[in-house]
Amino acid sequence: xxxxxxxxIPVAPIxxxxxxxxxxxxxxxxxxxxxxRLELDNDLIPVHLNVELGDTQFKDFFFWKASESNLxxxxxxxxxxxxxxxxxxxxxxxxxxxxxxxxxxxPYRFDSAAGERYHALGLDIxxxxxxxxxxxxxxxxxxxxxxxxxATTLASDLGLDSRFAVAIAHQLYTQLVTIDRLRxxxxxxxxxxxxxxxxxxxxxxxxxxxxxxIQLAATWEPMPGSVRGxxxxxxxxxx
Length: 239
Description:
By secondary structure, the protein is of the alpha/beta class. The chain has helices at residues 36-41, 73-83, 89-104, 147-157, 162-183; strands at 14-16, 44-53, 56-65, 118-127, 130-139, 213-216, 227-228, 235-237. The protein has two domains: 14-104, no CATH class; 113-228, no CATH class. Helix 2 (73-83) packs across helix 3 (89-104) and helix 4 (147-157) runs antiparallel to helix 5 (162-183).
């Protein structure tokens, strides 16, 4: 759907983060990781930073390794502020947000012995003038299902660059962590019906419902959980 670009909405200046990847995103299809890679992927913390001080706003999202030993949160934030010429006042605010999310993190757990357990996950990402939406069925008990290789393959298949890949991975991982926290305390979570369970991984029976969609986006109309990339939101697998 082609649209005419809407006039920009006045906002505080947003500084875009361009942190180097921690796990390289390749344009080639990646097979599901096995063995030691499982521990690595389960070690990633989805982090969302959003600080506005004065007339400057800084937004970023990325993955932080829970077992990171070569770089402290303070060192990372100091480097981030230096790289983007942020005022010194941003240092403590960004560090507080990063530390709070690290401390609150609960690693995602697989329960393969319990059998298949499908959840519907949604994608809603606005970036670089495009709007990507998708809906996938995810077996949360399959240890071979990981957001990073799935996102890499999806972005490659759709002809999207690596920034979309990490944005997809971040949004999926955030939902999976939330599901894991809820499913042990809420037995009434809504699950797809048996008729919707796919014969192929991730896609339901109704291809019209379970398929990615890309549109040229002229206006920003956020939905719950959506991610906007063209105004400063970024997803980086960072050092």
